[in-house]
Amino acid sequence: MAVIRLHDKTFDIYLSESTILEKVKEIAEQISNDYEGKNPLFIAILNGSFMFAADLFKQLTIDAEICFIKLVSYKGVRSTGHVTTAIGLDHDIFNRHVIIVEDIVDTGKTLGFFIPKLHHQQPASLKIAALLHKPEATLHPLEIDYTGFSIPNKFVVGYGLDYDGLGRNLREIYQLCEEA
Ligand code: IMP
Fold it and tell me: Does pTM top 0.85 for this prediction?
């Protein structure tokens, strides 16, 4: 479907399922090369990253572990600017090679909040894999080690990302249509 409607808003197709999956495979190949023999621990940030994390993890060709945390900052189509931990980290990351898995880096506040907490626990290394990045919206500059797509500063849904709860099940990524 080229155009979809969720709640009160209309969205246009932006990235097809095959484009996304090809990119996820590329990132998995890069990570598999970079982390051979290191048994990295992936920390996927719920809710939005569940689909990216699953597809990425399936494509790895090395030993690796995964766990999940839940951070909340978004309401509707905007960041509240206030990040809270809804489900915390239950793994010891001391001396582990850690890769954070994010669906999208928008303002960067979520990772700006979370990364110092992780550094405090002295991982052996800490890198970020983000499927999407909105460079124009990023207020807290971050070095993203594995980026899928740099996108314009427009709200997107699908492939795990939602608009007020809807749209996470879509296989493609859709962009908010300009209001007339
Ligand atoms: P940040 O803290 O502003 O970088 O935003 C991080 C979180 O906000 C992401 O993990 C998403 O869950 C959510 N988010 C940011 N931009 C979008 C978007 O365009 N669509 C849906 N969710 C978004």
Answer: yes
